[in-house]
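Fold this complex.
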Amino acid sequence: MSAVTAFPETPVAAFNLDAWSRVRLAQVEQALGRWVTAEAPQGLDHGAPAALVEAMRYAVLDGGKRLRPLLVLATHEAVCDPADTGAAHAAMRAACAVELIHAYSLVHDDMPCMDNDVLRRGKPTVHVQFGEASALLAGDALQALAFELLTPLDGSVPEATQARLCGLLARAAGSAGMAGGQAIDLASVGLPLTERQLREMHELKTGALLQGSVMMGARCGTPGARVLEALESYGSAIGLAFQVVDDILDVTADSATLGKTAGKDASNDKPTYVSLMGLPASQAYARRLLDQALTALDRSGLPHTQALRALADMVVNRVC
Amino acid sequence: MSAVTAFPETPVAAFNLDAWSRVRLAQVEQALGRWVTAEAPQGLDHGAPAALVEAMRYAVLDGGKRLRPLLVLATHEAVCDPADTGAAHAAMRAACAVELIHAYSLVHDDMPCMDNDVLRRGKPTVHVQFGEASALLAGDALQALAFELLTPLDGSVPEATQARLCGLLARAAGSAGMAGGQAIDLASVGLPLTERQLREMHELKTGALLQGSVMMGARCGTPGARVLEALESYGSAIGLAFQVVDDILDVTADSATLGKTAGKDASNDKPTYVSLMGLPASQAYARRLLDQALTALDRSGLPHTQALRALADMVVNRVC
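Structure:
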């Protein structure tokens, strides 16, 4: 059997990730615009103050690659029956919730006491635009809003799903997840780390929320243990790959392509995969992680994993 | 019928709030000590970094009146069958979760870009002790941990209860709750507010989480609509009373009794009930709110509301 006919039905190349993403990104953008709002929530007399909501919307809307929401939606589509509109609604809420957590982490990360960044996606950062106190509160409110999105009062998401999604998101965002990884990052500037310590830091800082996105998409349905295990491996591999590639791009891409300052990690004396293993070994590691992610999807036995495959490929082969 | 025999069975004085509180506070303290920890959560390979957890524990343990946890537990006891150990376990998790939200709000509130306070409960504030970046992250991680506590993976809290508690807490903490109230507070320094605007600010800033504590305690069980409505009124009245009394104490108590700087609101040119209505009218308003709270409890028809009554009395008649 020739190589051409060995995979007759599922070449990654035949899947148009751009077209797939475009539709979902528009839906996510519209949903975020609708849910990050000053309108009074159901059951409350008054909504949020307009000035706070303005800072929250500024932090969330019209920006970013939206990788985490796409991972939620791609996993949901791999796991759930497309006719199950309830699961699709839960997945859209989960997609927006992880993006709110990601957005709040950027707002707080950019503040003067952390990275002190003044530009993000070509715009002044939230604290530059609205002041530090407002940035702090907007970040805090975005985290709470993520859990509001997961717990609609209108019965549109089953309570068991709400509970599972809240649990996954809280652990991905918290002290043994994203916030914990940021704390390790903060403490490790200028320190020599082993490869194991570097991996642990990134598993928490970036990996936990990327893997959490995958698992939240999965838990909009009720997949079995084999599928969950495989998706956990997939999420873990692309979570780590994302960071390895970030480190590679920091030395190989120019600032204009990257949309942020290239070479920043090295100049900040931050430990990176490239500083630890060198560039060629880092590139080989990223390719190995992509293989692991794709093998995990094979193992899942799920029939519709094209979007997940294409997203893994995009994470590793992106240029910015 | 004489005044002495008019209320033969239910005098507030016969209920020993101190003794009731002492037992519950010890349980809350022990539970917080166990749950704010660096141990790996179930299902995760690694726990939180020790330095972050140290800052989180510093912010949470051994301090504060724990009014919010006591409100959760008192409401749970008023609503639920004492033999229902599952509901009691959910209530203890809810009690700790609201305290984590309260603690994170104090950590962020004390930061230089907000109130810039260096002392809290007689100790250096978290950012003074651990640095601003660590304080920011510890607050963020405490908020996430609150939702982790509400979503245990061991089946000890029914998923429907988990979902309801997460929904209540997210809304109490978020942009139409506590964080929203802080944003209004921030924007209103030096501005003339009407009594309605001041009330709206406090309903969000302090009231939402106090009322949320009551409703979370209630939702550990499955009370009917009449009970829920009555407890909402009770929570709303004591939430507002708490703030009115805070404003009164700011001008009537000395700093030593208060444990914080007295007269601070006036010197910061913050609008208060006392600056708006004067001291006697503020005191009369606080007593009226206490009456409203107690009347709401009468309306609930619940038989065991002694702790809730005593807590309402304590909120209004406290001296610090």
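Residues 225-252 of chain B form the longest helix (28 residues).
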